[in-house]
Amino acid sequence: MKKNKYFIIIIIIILLSGLWYGIKRTSFFNEVIGFILSPFWESTTYAGSKTRNFFQNYLFLVNLKKENERLKKEILFLKSQLAYYKEREKIYKKLEEFYQFSAEFNYPKIAAKIIYKPMDPFSGIVFIDKGSKDKLLPQMPVLAGVEGRGVALVGQVVEVYRSWSKVILITDPLFSADVKVERTGDRGILVGKAEKYCNLQYLPSTSQIKPGDEILTSGQDALFPSGLLIGKVVSVRRDPVQGMFKSAEVKPIVDLYNLDLVFVLLKLPEIPL
Amino acid sequence: MNAKEFLTVVLPLFVVAFFFKLYFSAFLLIYPGDILFALVLTVLIFRNSSVLLYTFLFFLGLLEGLDFLNIEILSAIYFVLLGILINHLRKYLTFETFESKILIWILSILTFLIFRYLVYFYNLNAPINWMLILNLVVKSFYYVFTTFIWVLIFYKILINFLYKRS
Questions:
Q1: What is the pLDDT of residues A230-262, one digit of tens each?
Q2: Is B63's CB within 8 Å of A33's CB?
Q3: Which one of A193, A236, A260 would you mutate to disrupt binding with B, by most B Cβ within 10 Å of its Cβ?
Q4: Number of structural domains in chain B
C-alpha cells in the first residue's frame, strides 16, 4: 500500500513535469529549484566575491607598522568608503562604455548580474539574474564590456526560466559561432572545449591568419550580429583531422573568470528555435 | 536513514556543503571539487536503503546536474542507481575497514568521472590533441583529489553522528 502511494506520487510528478515541458519548454525541476535557490546563489556568490575583494583590497594593503589605532581605523573606514565608490564607479563605467560602444548594435540590451559560476573543469556555464520575465529567450547573445575596446561576445543564453537563466560561455564545449578574422576576412567556426582558449576551425588552408589577429563574429550564423569582438589568435596550425583546413587557438578578449556583469542582447534568432 | 537522522544530521550538513560549494567558487575562483557527490558517497557508506535516502539522492542528482546542460535527470538517476549498487555491494563486501571504504570511494569517483567524460566528449566539437589530453589528465587528477578530500572531511563529520547509531 505504501509502495503504491510512492509510485502514484512519482507518476504524478512525472506527468506534471511532462505537462510543464509541453507548455513552457523548460524543466519543471529547474524552474522550482532555481526559484528557491536564486536568492541563495546570489547572496553566497556576493559574499564570496566580497570576501575576495576584501582580501585583495584591504588585508594585503593594510600597513602592518601601525602608527596608531585611531588613524588605522580612520584609514580603514575611508578605504571601505572608497572601495564602495570604486565598485559603484566600476559598474557605472561598464554600463557607460557598454552603451557607448554598443550603439551600433541596433537591438535592445539588458544588463544582468552573474549570480552563480559553477567553475566546473569540464564546462563553462554561468547563471544570470534575468529570465523570461525580462523577455530573455534561448540563443540570445551575451556580451561584456572590454575596457576601452567596446564590447565583446562572452556567451549565449541556453536555458531561460522565469527569474534566472543559464548562459554558456564561449569556452563551453557546446558553444559554436560563425566567425571571421578581422584582418584577412577568412571565416571559420569557433568552438569551446572547456579550456582557457577556444578552437577556431575550418579556416581555409590559404588563410594568412597569424597570432595576434582579432576574431569577430561574422553574422552568418543568424544568431550573433556581425562585428562582435571575441578574442585574439594565440597560435595557428594545420587542422590535424582535416588537412585542407587550418585551425587556430583563440584567447577570449574578456577575462571570463572575473565576469560579474554581462549584457544580453535581446536579439531574436533569425532561424526557428 | 530515518527522518530524525535526516533532519538533524544529513540536511544541515547538506546546507553547509551547498554553501561551501557556492562560496568557494565565488571566493577562490577555482573549482572546489565535487562537494555534492562527495556528500552522497559519504552518506551511502553509513546508511543504505530507505525511501528518504533515495529521494535525497535524487534531489542531489538534480542539483548536481544543474551545473550542466540537460543532464539533470540523468545525474539524478545516476545517483539513485549508485545508491542501489552500493547497497547491493554490501552483500559481497564488508565496509567495516577503512581500506574497503577508500576503495569504494575511489572507484565511485572514477566511475562518475567517466560519466562526466562521456558527457564532455559527446558535446565536444574540437579536435583532440595532446595538449587537450594533458589538460584533461591534470583536471581529472585535480577532480579526484579535491572530491576525495571532501569525502574524507564529510566522513570525519558523519562518523561522529551516524556511526554510533548504526
A1: 999 999 988 766 678 888 999 999 988 888 889
A2: yes
A3: A193
A4: 1
Q: Which of A27, A48, A120 sits opposite B22 (nearest CB)?
A: A48
Question: Which DSSP symbol is given to B127?
Answer: P
Q: Which three cell numbers stand for residue A197?
A: 582558449
Smallest CA-to-CA distance from B145 within B117, B113, B98 is with B113
Query: Which DSSP category does B6 fall into?
Result: I
B27 touches chain A (CB under 8 A): yes
**Structure confidence at residue A179 (pLDDT):** 94
- Judge whether B124 is closer than 8 Å to chain A, CB to CB: yes
Chain A 159-188, residues with CB within 8 Å of chain B CB atoms: 159, 166, 168, 172-174, 176
Q: Which domain holds residue B106?
A: 3-163
User: What is residue B69's DSSP assignment?
Assistant: S
Asked if ipTM goes beyond 0.85, one says no
Q: A117–B51: do the CB atoms touch at under 8 Å?
A: no
Question: Is the Cβ of A22 closer than 8 Å to some Cβ of chain B?
Answer: no
pLDDT at A96 over 60: yes
Instruction: Check CB contact of B66 with chain A, cutoff 8 Å.
Output: yes
Full 3-state SS string of A149-167: CEEEEEEEEEEECCCCEEE
Q: Under a CB-based contact definition with an 8 Å cutoff, are residues A190 and A250 in contact?
A: yes
Reported as a pLDDT band with limits 50, 70 and 90, residue B164 is low
Top pLDDT among A94 and B36 is at B36
Chain A environment of B116 (Cβ under 8 Å): 122
- Calculate what percentage of chain A has a pLDDT beyond 70: 87
What is the DSSP-derived secondary structure letter of residue B121? H
For residue A85, pLDDT over 50 is answered with: yes
Phi, psi of A179 (to 5 degrees): -130, 170
Band (pLDDT 50/70/90 cuts) for residue B66 is confident
Q: Report chain A residues whose CB lies below 8 A from the CB of B25.
A: 45, 48, 116-119
